[in-house]
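Hi V.,

You were right to ask for the full record rather than a summary. Here it is.
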Amino acid sequence: MEKFSLQELEARSAICGHYPALLEIARSSKSPTTAYELSMAKCNGREDLAKACRYLSMIKRDFGEMLFDNFVQEIEGKSRKEGVLLNLKPFEQTIQRFHYLLELGNSLGKEFSERFSFSEMDEPYLLVVEQLVAGIDGLQGDHARIFHDNMVANSQPCYIDEARRFATDARNRKCVDRYGLEKTMVVLGMFISFVADLNGIPRSDLCLRDHINQNYWSRPKKTN
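Predicted structure:
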């Protein structure tokens, strides 16, 4: 029987972090063979996943439950982080879209840089703003308090009201003013950071948030 190192088994089984059912099978199975058979049944014949589960079970058999549990915790954490970042992607894309609209308005002159209207192409971004407002309104207990305190410490809680107004006006196909657009971008950035912090994602992974807040948090007064 081929003998694998711990590093080889970890590399071959890391995909299990995306499948809680496989983690449970590997944890409860009495042997790698049993883990393979149960995984084949659970995953509708996906041999790649069944093999990964078998390799994961081999870590427990060959290197002990402590190393097994440590590795499971590691791949669960990575999987959760990837899932959170994937869920935050629409929020980042919305910031990018609004940033583009602001820059486009600036290039076209004052007539186009103070008020903005949206087309059907912007529908996905407007839905994200509605999700943003619903997400903030849905915060409870300590989460609600922490988010509100962050807004007070870094800007003003009225920015959230601007995001609500933005969502309503955009949905009714009204024009949105520059102030509302900029402050909605700030709230988007704050929400991205808040969700990332809750899930242990470092700020270094959120370069978009820092870029937007540096540009739109408190714009300097124009000087002659």
